[in-house]
Fold:
Amino acid sequence: MTDAGDGIPWFLRLLRPLIFKPASVQAEKLVKAVDSVVSEKKTGLFITQGYRKPNPAIALNQKIQNDLGKLLDTLAVP
Structure:
């Protein structure tokens, strides 16, 4: 969404301050979560609600990772 509210219905413009947090607030949460683990030099960081969380079990499933890799390889543009 833009600051002017272009492209959203008028009633959502009225509710926007109650529903959506400013991008600066969300970005600050993300930066804090990343800063807290950047020294670990690990990949696969899972952040939700502004906090680092353990990876979901489905993300650690090797068969699903392999199947997803194969699927993405079939979609790759030569």
Q: What stands out?
A: The beta strands are 46-48, 51-53. The chain has a mean pLDDT of 79. The helical segments are 10-19, 23-35, 57-60, 62-75. Residues 62-75 form the longest helix (14 residues).
